[in-house]
Amino acid sequence: MLLYRLGPEGFYAVRDEEGVLRALYSDPYDVRPGGWEFGREIEEEPLGLLAPVAPGKIVGVGCNYRDHAAELGNEMPSEPLLFLKAPSSVIGHRSPIVLPPESERVEFEGEIAVVVRHRLTRADAEQARAGILGVTCACDVTARDLQRRDATFARGKSFDSFCPLGPAIQVEPDLESLEVVTRLDGEERQRGQVNEMAWDPVAQLVYISRMMTLEPGDVVLTGTPAGVGRLEPGQALEVEVSSVGVLENRVEARVE
């Protein structure tokens, strides 16, 4: 099932296997899908879907694909490389990615994003898997010049609009079969699968939860495959994750 967050109120709706979209009366973080209660049928999706989650924190995992580490000239880390993005960087489907004047090179990084269902603290693999609500499409937009200049990634990763998420959450997906594809102006630029990751999503949650408690609605960006590249004003970016759909965002320059 696909879980959407609809504006302007931010209520949830579910599209079932037959394609019918219905309001969700249950809290998807408290109630398992088998116990969800549904309301009225929604005939048409709003033009402006909200990001499907409003995370308290966004945890990124860097260099999780060996070919991506190689293209950046980095050695593979011996354990997951963690960084944080500001929650204020989140935007939804079809909202613009805005290029800031502080950076001369902003790049796309298409990713599979994991949405946390319930609190995880020092979780084992079974607990981590049970703590996943679902996955969505993400782009870890990065000011690459600032990232290389700074000792930490926070500035280069956290500008407003630097974390597109959406259009929906695929609830309880088959984690092992997921694939992410990134297209720029319709041309494929990235393609990666979970089985190519150094640390799969469950292993990532186990590791992250040793250092910090993951709360309901937190988002983990699981890493990007090779093929990252520069964004320019006027371009159209698409990130597709199998079973989720396509996240679409145009690119604009910030006007002061």
How helix-rich are the residues, as a percent range?
10-25%
Q: Uncertain runs with pLDDT below 50, 5 residues or more?
A: none
Strand content: 35-45%
Please state the second-level CATH architecture of the largest domain: Alpha-Beta Complex
Subunit organisation of the chains? single chain
Number of helices: 5
Whole-number total of structural domains: 2
CATH fold descriptor of the largest domain: Fumarylacetoacetate hydrolase, domain 2
CATH class of the largest domain: Alpha Beta
> How far apart are the termini?
42 Å
* Rg on CA atoms, Å: 17 Å
Please tally the β strands and state the result: 19
- What sort of overall outline do the alpha carbons produce when their principal axes are compared? globular
- Average of per-residue pLDDT values: 94
Structural notes for this entry:
The protein has helices at residues 66-71, 125-130, 144-149, 154-157, 201-211, and strands spanning 2-6, 11-15, 21-24, 38-41, 58-62, 81-85, 90-91, 97-99, 106-108, 110-116, 132-139, 142-143, 163-171, 179-184, 187-193, 219-221, 229-230, 236-241, 245-253. By secondary structure, the protein is mainly β. It is built from 5 helices and 19 strands. The protein folds into 2 domains: 1-48; 51-253, Fumarylacetoacetase-like, C-terminal domain (Fumarylacetoacetate hydrolase, domain 2, Alpha-Beta Complex), CATH 3.90.850.10. Strands 1, 2, 3, 4, 5, 6, 7, 10, 11, 13 and 16 form an 11-stranded mixed sheet that branches.
